[in-house]
What we know:
Organism: Leptospira fluminis
Protein name: Iron dicitrate transport regulator FecR
Number of domains: 2
Structural class: alpha+beta
Keywords: Signal
Domain FecR protein: 70-179
CATH architecture of the largest domain: Sandwich
Strand content: 25-35%
Signal peptide: 1-21
Amino acid sequence: MFRIKTNLILSSALAISFLIACGPKTGRDQVKSEARVSPAKIVWVVGDVRIQSAAGEKKAEQGLTVSASDTILTGANGSVEIIVADSGIIKVSKNSELSVATLVTDSGSDVKVNVNYGKIVTMVRKEQKTSDFRVVTPTALAGVRGTTFLTSVENPSGNRMNCANEGCEVRFAVLEGSVAVTKVGEDSEVILDRNRELTLKKNQKLTDKLILTLRSESLKELKGLIVLKKNDVLEYNRLVDELKASSEELRILSQTSSVEEAKVQLQKRELSRNSADEVTQTARIVNETKYVQQDVQKEKLKLNPKETF
């Protein structure tokens, strides 16, 4: 009898374990099961651009997909444009080295761009609240959303080196939107807004004092890299149209004939935007004052005329 009861208990336990294993998954498990790797795609390439992987090295070509384990290398005359998860475009300058990792779920995407050396311009779609787009360098990282900005990782002397071990400078230059910059190994964070830039050395502390107005040199680099030419990749063309339609700064930089002209137009837009912000702020203050006066009047009406203060 005891053996029968024991067998029944064991059978019940096994049945319960089976039901738990085969039952509905938790939210976290569902996210993991739904997550999928979405390789980046090369949509434009010129000059010496190579892809290094465990299988060896090959020449970069339009339409080629790039996985997280691949390293993208551009030579002295090389440049490449990459679309990632239908959420952003990365334009890579000459003499650069980077990798791109993308994880996509039904609720958004997680993109991490590791820049080991060189320059890139990142153009990220706006209104992507469920997406995470990060640019990581050996010294600092930038979290972005709906932003166009330049990342530069270089040796001040001009010689190419391993920036993970050497003292390279990292520069973030923001054309529009904002970037949250943090330094590796530190808890501090600096917000870099539009038309601002920041240069950080390896042994330098990250503070707001490093923020400068966007320089002509950075604007020139941005303009030189932001050349959005349509091709036969439909998803890329749609994203280019969306980026231009949602960004006046991007339109100005891509359509003006010189850096000086672009700088003048960007300054005019900044002044116009600041004036509009001041008008909005003034209207808000006036409106709030009106409501305060109305509230005071209502309180007065509630007082007993015979009572005094």
